[in-house]
Amino acid sequence: MGLSITHKLISSHWVSGKMVPGEEIGLKIDQTLTQDATGTMAYLQFEAMGIDRVKTELSVSYVDHNTLQSGFENADDHKFLQTVAKKRGIYFSRPGNGICHQVHLERFGVPGKTLLGSDSHTPTGGGIGMLAMGAGGLDVAVAMGGGTYYITMPKVVNVKLIGKLSPWVAAKDVILEVLRRLTVKGGVGKVIEYTGEGVKTLSVPERATITNMGAELGATTSVFPSDEITREFLKAQGREKDWAEILPDEDAVYDEEIVIDLSELKPLAAMPHMPDKVKAVSEIGPIKIDQVCIGSCTNSSLLDMLKVAAILKGKTVHPDVSLTISPGSKQVLNMLSDLGALSDIIAAGARILESACGPCIGMGQAPKSGGVSLRTFNRNFEGRSGTADAQVYLVSPETAAISAITGVLTDPQTLGEMPEFTLPSMFKIDDNMIIPPAPAEEADKVEIVYGPNIKEVPKGRPLEDELKATVVLKVEDNITTDHIMPAGAKILPYRSNIPYLSQFCFKQLDENFAENCKKVGNAIVVGGQNYGQGSSREHAALVPLYLGVRAVIAKSFARMHKANLINAGILPLTFINEADYDRIEKDDVLTMPYVKDEVLNGKDITLKNETKGETYKLAGGFSDRQKDILISGGLLRYTANK
Ligand code: MIC
Ligand code: SF4
Q1: To test the ligand 1 pocket, which listed residue (492, 535, 561) has its Cβ within 8 A of the most ligand atoms?
Q2: pLDDT tens, residue by residue, 444-468
Q3: What CATH topology corresponds to 268-413?
Q4: Nearest ligand, CA of residue 119?
């Protein structure tokens, strides 16, 4: 029986567990990455483990999220990250060097390796045949310490690409089509593997756009083969020696298969407020727009930027539109400048932002009230832009650039030939913004600098025999981590300060969430399907932990958030009978009289609704390791006990 790429990568990093879908498996992690918004917690946790130097082949710490520096907080965090990196054997990518996923693909990623990143879009690395996964900061800290990373053995979906994209149709449209078909929960428990003749028509940056936004499917990761095109890309990055061929066996077996004929695709857009609300641009029609933002880890490669520059050349941005452009890395920005394309972009009236996440995470550029914003990003969750009633559409760079000129959402296929541009055969290589770690023998001399914004990491409580708690919030399906722990320019600077962050928890859905939690002491949140989708931010678990949330009861969970809850010592439980969801209300007092015994022995969990006088059954479905973590009161305590 032939192996898929996914199975090859898993087998070569397998540490423990049965490779049967649904079973927990342990994997060896070769490389890690962190970014600043999740990195501070990850390194605080790494420090708490008392390990001198990272044990991975390569670990990189990026600064790309909190670059606004409207107060001392971000700059303090940057210094902390820089000093930890130097001491502990980690490469430090300075602010200005670019978005973690873009830079990692350019400078560090290696086909065939595993990569664990404290950011949900780490699967970008799947574009060069890596098994690249997002996780909470604590999981990444454990991996940096040489610990095994655990996932549920995924099913593998073969997305067979045939044909070739028509002019004006982009890689973004491919992933939007996958999202349209599978939805934001369609990838849960699965790896999305791309095969077929169509793969050969896609360059590495295009493949990386597709694997990047596979995160929005809820997938464990996405992966492309590493082939001659990958070799060319690495060669152009001066890294041909890192190349290895990784192809699926001819008779590889998959759990599911989807066929996409690239030649049939049209320019698409995800409409407000979900990445899977996808329609053809032509079908949505020429709606008037206020803002266009081009960039983010999904679409900020040199290829994307050169296309945009070619479209903007000799034109002027529409008077009613504000166009921002954030090149993905210093390399991209530098080359745009050398090639003269930057000049075309500036001349057209675009507002050039630094090479960072920027508007994608609400770090500036919030649209006007009720404004319509076209973005080449990967998420359009309500309020994420910084303006509660903004209408954000996700589109390709081509659609974005043309619409910025016309002032309305425009199908690029209606505008004649795609302008010509040439992609250089070599990238400009200069890693002067990457600081290598101190040699091990000098590490002692490096002092880690903690600013006043850095507060303690909250610790979970060991599980009691019986748990009594009050329902403080009941929410619908597809609740995102942006709902649980919002980001944006006003809040993100406090990612190292859980007490301060806690006042913003669930604020969009309930003004008084934090206060109510404090009032009841022990709190429970009730959720629908796919609870906690979106980002890897463990703050969406650590803040509820700080506020006294002891359990989340939902119809189903997103992968990374479930792992983060367990790591924090919060019970993620699912309804055995989904109809019970309707029976529980806010303010109901719930008890789990035998919870410890039931978790420990893998039994169904008895839930008594004291307010309604009813009893329900819940499922945990925990592995032995997860049971131990929950009973110890979280991964930090569990690791300390060991
Ligand atoms: C995001 O896109 O939401 C983020 C910000 O990159 C997050 C990480 C974070 O919350 O810091 C992610 O996707 O994991
Ligand atoms: Fe940054 Fe946006 Fe990518 Fe998250 S999705 S890493 S915020 S660019």
Answers
A1: 535
A2: 999 999 999 999 999 999 999 999 9
A3: Aconitase; domain 3 (3.30.499)
A4: 1
